[in-house]
Amino acid sequence: MSNRRPLVICYLAIVLTILVILMGGWTRIMDAGLGCPDWPGCFGQVTAPVSQLHIDEARQNFAGVEVDAVKGWIEMIHRYMATTLGLLVMALVVMAWQRRRQPSYPVVLSSVLLLLVVCQGLFGMWTVTLKLLPPIVLGHLLGGLLTLTLLTVLAGRIRTVGSSPRQSSYRGLMRLAMLILFVQILLGGWTSANYAGWACTHWLSCIAGQSTELDFATGFSFNFETDQNHQGGTLSQPARAAIQMMHRAGALVVSCVMLLVGMLALQRRTSRRPAYVLLGLLTLQLLLGVANVVYGVPALLAWLHHVGAVSLLLCLLWLKSCYLSEVRYE
């Protein structure tokens, strides 16, 4: 049985996952996470309200809730894309079970992906019902990153069904780089979920000419009130400043690790292209981080910073595949 069809669907799922993650970032940046106060519909409808009649009905049925059709559509488009992704992953699982007798076909990995996507749907629901509770928002981001990573691994496994790859000498380093980048992206997600991007206004220190109190204990506590709206953030200035400065410290660690990975990759002919892209993306991401601080986190720059983080993750996955392509198969 040919594996071309599941491979094509896997590639489509990877592209759609990237779009879902980027759309999720735009949803958060535009404060559209509660554009639809209910789930899975929007103000009791399958789509966001458009006509004046539907808007009036929404205001009547959801008294005290802002009815913004634009934000509603941003949120619903994100949900439609995520639902389509779930259907693609279900198709991958069905085809995996059809091929379960093929040696080394990734049936278990396909099933794990489906379970992960189901969990993502639950986190998407809780993001709305718990009104942007930061730990839930962070979990939703983590699920998206894991989905993208596992889909990329799945594509590689499907391509090499029947082969037995040897271990790459850089496998440990690549895993460490991926882990550190994951942690840094999650720190960025925590910064965003707590609206801490505005806490520090100086690109190097927190506030120019002032000593800033940093409350790390509160900033990194998961103890939040579950019955209040968390849009706009609920933490104190010292707690938000602590989150922001920790994210900056993480950027320094990521920069050192990415530089090491990039320099080692430049020594190999087959990995030079992704190495140059990695170093270029790293430079651009650092500049975007500084620009967000200097200009007060405007929506476009904040979203581009989000895009940069996802691009760095994709580039590391590309680099990993280049290392593995150098390994001869038995």
Characterise the protein shown here:
The protein has 10 helices and no strands. α1 (4-29) runs antiparallel to α3. The protein has 330 residues and is an all-alpha fold. The mean pLDDT is 92. The relative contact order is 0.11.
Largest sheet: none
- Silhouette: flat
Compressed to H and E, one letter per element, the order equals: HHHHHHHHHH
* Share of helical residues: 55-70%
Beta content comes to under 5%
Low-confidence stretches: none
Q: Which class best fits the helix and strand makeup?
A: mainly alpha
**How many helices?**
10
The overall strand count is 0
- Roughly how many Å apart are the termini? 22 Å
Question: What is the residue-mean pLDDT, rounded to a whole number?
Answer: 92
Radius of gyration: 21 Å
> What's the oligomerization state?
single chain
Label this structure with key terms:
mainly alpha; 330 residues
SSE order and pairing:
Layout: H1 4-29, H2 52-61, H3 69-98, H4 107-129, H5 134-159, H6 171-193, H7 216-219, H8 237-265, H9 272-294, H10 299-325
Helix pairs in contact: 1-3, 1-5, 1-10, 3-4, 4-5, 5-6, 5-10, 6-8, 6-10, 8-9, 9-10
